Every structure is written in C-alpha cells, then in structure tokens.
Amino acid sequence: MAIRINIDVMLAKRKMSVTELSEQVGITMANLSILKNGKAKAIRFSTLENICKALNCQPGDIIEYLPDDDSDDSTQIN
C-alpha cells in the first residue's frame, strides 16, 4: 500500500508557490517539504483542511491511495 501526496500537482494547477502555500497554511517550509515529498508519517486534519482551503480543493485532490501490485481481494483489514 502506498499513499501519494499530490501537493505539487495542485500547486501547479493553482499557479501557487510552495512559499505562498506555506504562508497561507501556517506551516514551515520544512514541514511542507516533508509532506510534499511523501516523507510525512501523519497529517493533522486541521493542516489538511487549511491546505484544502488555500488550494480550493478536496482532500482527495491531494491524497491518493495506490494499492500494492501483489494485493488480492482476500486482504484482511485489521
């Protein structure tokens, strides 16, 4: 399972810089970079909400689920 963060895509669509987004959302450039590069282990809902407000988008525009290639229908949810 992989989760892909598509902030770069939304920034390009909105013609917004990472610096602008950082200022509007109220998070540091370092933390935004960690999120943008897929290195974050978690995101607060309030941060996600602020990113969606700044980019005028839905959470699904930013976060994408990519199933494993070897997954099957018998996968058990814990």
TrEMBL record:
It comes from Alkalibacillus salilacus. This is Transcriptional regulator. The lineage of its organism: Bacteria, Bacillati, Bacillota, Bacilli, Bacillales. InterPro entries: Cro/C1-type_HTH (IPR001387), Lambda_DNA-bd_dom_sf (IPR010982). PROSITE patterns: HTH_CROC1. Residues 13-62 form the HTH cro/C1-type domain.
